[in-house]
Amino acid sequence: MSNPIIRYLVSSPHGDIPADENKWDLPLEGDTLKTSYRMYFHSIRGFLSQDEFKPFISLISQKLGKEDRLKEIHEIIIRTEKHGLLYHPASVESILTNGKVKFGLNVAISDIGRHWLKEEYSILQKLHTKFHLPYLPKVYFFGELNAMSFLLEDWFEGYHEFHISKDNEGKQQMKLWDFDHGYKHLSQEQSFEIYKKASKILTLYYDLEDFSQIFPWHHAAGDFVVKIEDEKNPPLPPFSKGGMGGFSGKPVDVRLTTARRYEPFMGFIEKNTLNPILALCYYLLDLTIRMRLDKLDGIGEVVWADNTCVKATLTGFFEALKLKVDLKNYFNQAEDFLSLLQSFSQKELKNIFNPLIDHYRGTEDFPVIISHRDEHTGELYATLQNLPL
Q1: pLDDT tens figures, 85-120
Q2: Are the beta carbons of 186 and 247 closer than 8 angstroms?
Q3: What are phi and psi of 69, to 5 degrees?
Q4: What region, left, alpha or beta, does residue 147 occupy, with left being phi > 0 and alpha being psi -120 to 50 degrees?
Q5: Do the strands 73-80 and 5-10 form a parallel or antiparallel pair, or are they unpaired?
Q6: Of the residues 101, 190, 240, 382, which has the fewest C-beta atoms closer than 10 A?
Q7: How far is residue 97's CA from residue 29's CA, in Å, rounded to a whole number?
Q8: Axis-axis angle for helices 308-323, 334-342 (nearest 10)
Q9: Which structural domains are found in the chain, ordered by start?
Q10: How far apart are CA 104 and CA 81, in angstroms?
């Protein structure tokens, strides 16, 4: 029985680029071990083709709801998507007689990357079992080959990274990394929705009883992705100066691509030693800081999101809080927690922020947080006083 054709591509803002075999001996970007593209692609192929592709075919059958055989897979497209500090993610697209199926494949090469990928596999399984929420990728199987680790999981089709950028006048604006149609600037309303929904997702996964949360995450790492474009929301023509398109509509859907840890933040491990309400205060205030951090265009200097992010974060947080079935163990309703926050003076908020900010000491984010601390506290205080629920 013949194996399917396998094609190798490199994802880019200008569309897919065929992997040039003349360059396969070049090292992967960001890999300190200098693993070649040849070893990377061939190892992925080896991982997928184990036991004559049987585990992979079984997964395809599961996704399609019908039994498939190897001969029905005409082509497998392995596409390297990006290169990060820990992982070198790829997508795996199978073209079948009737349809196609696409998966995400996280690839870890370094020792620390392999450690975290194995942890992530376990955590994602745990979170899906505990919460039954759709915002994280489902994971299917984990494996190791050629001193690499692989995690096959859901691919969020049509979702893309976003990062703070600057427009032609130097004003801060969010940019969507749409590799299907090119980079696009987003409106302030769309940016608000992204921050709101990212905040809501994280809070839905927050455990009110033992303070566990998904952490670490960072916008600069592309941990959140967003889907905006659809048939009812086509891209606008390119801007006359910048050459980038925009969007006319507002539909926004956000997903979280990773969960490296799930545990209490700041060492709040002994749940009986800290009031859950105070822990929730710490969680929210830290969320308002972390949500504002990014790197310019994803790779430049650390940047601080504008004040719109504060109201968006608070709105998403309270939307999630209202959905928590165990909320009544702590408050009659979410409005009670808002009233508590509104009772804090601006000075009291600043005092609560201090231990949170100190946690960032030694990171690239720390100087940026310090430089915006007073302004952020003031904006948070003002927004809380006028926040509608």
Answers
A1: 899 999 999 999 888 999 999 999 999 999 999 999
A2: yes
A3: -125, 165
A4: left
A5: parallel
A6: 240
A7: 35
A8: 140
A9: 5-154 (3.30.200.20), 162-385 (no CATH)
A10: 9
